[in-house]
Specification:
Layout (H helix, E strand, L loop, with lengths): L1 E4 L2 E7 L2 H14 L13 E2 L14 H18 L3 E13 L5 E4 L8 E7 L7 E4 L6 E4 L5 E6 L4 E3 L8 E13 L6
Antiparallel strand pairs: 1-2, 2-9, 3-4, 4-11, 5-10, 6-9, 6-11, 7-8, 7-10
Length: 183
């Protein structure tokens, strides 16, 4: 479903619960190996292990489900692009971990960005208007998938609980726009 965010839009839907449980089990089993802390925040990611965790064979069903939602996002917006998931990573939020306000913009490429939630209790995802004047807090649930433009500022609130929170983020590279039917 496409939802309004200020004057911008974002996609919010659900992925199959069993697929998400498989993904959680794989990532949770591996989570102690995820030590990357590239950003100015408290978070652990899988980027020290791989720059595209969705290429792991154990996550193939997840990748196919995400691609279906990306197609649905494009359909609902009436704009179609050829592309592929260029980068994906697991986010591990321990108590007091958070993600600062940021975008996924790239100097040369345009992406769709998204997050899949693999735990029951999650901190708010804050989506900001492009001029940063408004914020929309979203309380994600297990199996929620949220997709938005790469230039959309967003952050994740502090995990105030002892419970580990796990999400899977991705960037879908928009290679070229589909020109539509010729006849």
């Amino acid at each position: 479903m496409i939802k309004a965010l200020h004057t911008e839009k974002y996609y919010h839907s659900k992925i199959d619960n069993n697929v998400c449980k498989e993904s959680f089990n794989f990532i949770n089993r591996e989570n102690k190996t995820y030590t990357e802390q590239s950003w100015n925040c408290k978070i652990r990611t899988s980027l020290n292990v791989t720059d595209n965790i969705l290429n792991e064979k154990e996550l193939l069903n997840t990748k196919m489900n995400i691609l279906g939602h990306i197609e649905n996002y494009m359909h609902l917006n009436g704009k179609y692009f050829y592309g592929y998931i260029i980068m994906s990573w697991a986010n591990i939020y321990e108590k007091e971990f958070f993600q600062e306000k940021h975008t996924h913009e790239h100097s040369c490429n345009k992406h769709l960005s998204g997050i899949l939630y693999l735990t029951e209790n999650n901190s708010n995802l804050n989506l900001y208007s492009s001029n940063l004047s408004e914020v929309t807090p979203i309380k994600p649930e297990f199996a929620d998938i949220i997709i938005f433009e790469d230039d959309r500022p967003h952050s994740v609130a502090v995990n105030a609980e002892e419970t580990l929170r796990i999400s899977l983020a991705f960037n879908y590279l928009l290679v070229s726009e589909w020109n539509g039917r010729k006849v």
